[in-house]
Write a structure and sequence with these properties.
The structure holds two protein chains of two kinds. Helix content of chain A is about 35%, strand content about 25%. In chain A, helix 4 links the parallel strand 3 and strand 4. Chain A is globular. Chain B is mostly helical. Chain B has one domain: Orthogonal Bundle (Non-ribosomal Peptide Synthetase Peptidyl Carrier Protein, Chain A). Chain B contains three helices and no strands. In chain B, helix 1 crosses helix 3. Chain B is globular and about 30 Å long. Classes of the chains: A alpha/beta, B mainly alpha.
Amino acid sequence: MSSTITKLSAPLTQAFDFQPSSELQITSTLNTLTQRLADFDTLTSALEYAAKGITGYNFYDAKGSLRSVLPYSLLRENARVLAKRLFGLNLLRGERVAIIADTSPEFIELFFACRYAGLIPFAMPVPVNLGSHAIYVQQLRGMLESGQASIALANIDYVGFLKEAAEHVESLQWVGTPAELGEFPIKDVDFQDNHPDETAYLQFTSGSTRASRGVVITERALMCNLQGIVRNGLEIKPNDRSASWLPFYHDMGLVGLVLAPMVTQISVDYLATRDFAIRPLQWLKIISRNRCTVAFSQPFGLKLCAMRVRDSDLKDLDLSCWRAAGIGAEMIKPGILRNFAERFASAGFSEHAFLPCYGLAESTLAVTFSKINEGCRSIQVDSKALIDRKIAVRIQAEGRKQSEFVNCGRPLPGHIVQIVNEAGEQVPEMMVGSVLVHGDSVMTGYFNNPEETNKALKSGNWLDTGDIGFLFEGDLYITGRRTDVIIVNGRNIRAQDIEELAEQQPEVRSREASAFGVSDEDGATTIVLVIECRLSAIAERQSLTTRLQQLVYMAFGVNCVVELVPPHTLPRTSSGKLSRFAARQGYIQRTNLDGQQLSAVESGDR
Amino acid sequence: MSETDYDQIVQLLCDRLADLSKTSKESISPETNLITQLSIDSIKLLGLIMEIEDAFDISIPINALTDIQTVHELAELIHKIKSAS
């Protein structure tokens, strides 16, 4: 019990250890500096410029009070001092620094300190789930090992997890808090300029346990993507201001809402992801109060807002300032957007603000943007033709079963999107196939992982996104995500990770578990885990089912349906590999589901 | 630790959890596992935390939840935060 008290006292002390907000002033929206739109070689040169102005980052707490302010000028100063402390560790240029990225000024300072010192930072997640301690530590360890981190940092709330994860990670020379780093002596070494071809940072793509993959993003790829986002996607102007609750360890949070504002010298207001998830309206209140113009969310975030808002909240909100409501990171179901727009229309929200886009970490962040100020556009296609003939046939008449897909817009300048069939041949417009991307934003590969890199990067440096879609009049429509990723409530979960959890159970043999997602009409996804099982006793079967559900919950924070089937039920390919796609078809047939009935399926063994 | 406070917290938790998981209040005890027995998913959890924070005027640190699996553990956590504030 005393250990719990120690753990608890830390965040509590910290929670009260800040300046009273009355003394703090948010950074202004209008700058004293001529706006430059990401026309820099590197992140540090962009920060050197932004630091000449008066804009910057602002952090709000759960109650909506301003907790800390980090103008770009102060960020530059602090990051440069921290970089000189990092020099004291005698790391070589290009060594990796792992940082648990909570929504705090300290994370951003460390990130830029690494760049000034020629080191490569990567962000790691904060824990989110009940009972997830052991699995979270395992996730951290996977990233530390995969990124071969030389040092690792976390604030006082998370450093305990980090130290547990750091045991037996051989590359690590030092693990500590930003405060501890702050006590290191300043070593006065001159900064070397970073080169555009150097790696700027690694972006981990999912919180997987074993096979963590760090996407390598160079300064050039980053700046190329940022230019596309701020000039063509968002058309950023000097009077823009952003607000964000997106985690700093996700590509949309980091590139879109930390780096993009800095390279255009505009101010941002942050709310921690946890605080948003509990009280989503705080985000909208910040947008309303600070007259923010640009704010991104996954569809799931909008759904949370619409679910939680009460009529009495609406009269205090004025969202008419919000001109670019970027939507990305998961399949966009138009119904969620319509519902949000209806709910918040009386608060001045305009549906023209919706800005659907498509992207992935392997292409830095963004690939396509729809046209700004035009809202969410979609088309209806014949569901049967889509599945049977892989072709999108537009439907005008009522009656036929149809599917609606959102227009994700066109590729950023200098980028090409191509749709190919299974043979890798380009297909005409309206034909459904794999989405490939080419351009300067594409990653150079996964860090220290040639095998995965070769799977993702095809000849000529075409990135296979793994997503499925079609082009129509030059615009991209995504019809499905790759089968190896299940997206639940906006989080990407790798099917392989769930199967590995199952295979760690003594009753489950390897290659006898298959995980996939099934979605209902509203776009809500349920994870299904099918296990080939030899157990006959009801109690044993129940015990396995319960244990698997618990493990999946602790790892990913979601409930799942576990189905136990007799051996040799799961379909295999000629090489003996399980086919998740076929397993999913089989499950749908067995349970006789169609979309609407799905939610009625109870979890567990019956 | 004042027992009344702790008992009150358990009472309130059982009430809310019965509601959230659509089970009877009687079937929930301090030993009940939130994950396996009540299927409290992340969305229900967020709603529950909001209600707890509002009801007790506290802030629950996210890192503390990683060691919570039962009603008793959650009640104890709330009680500690409440006593410390």
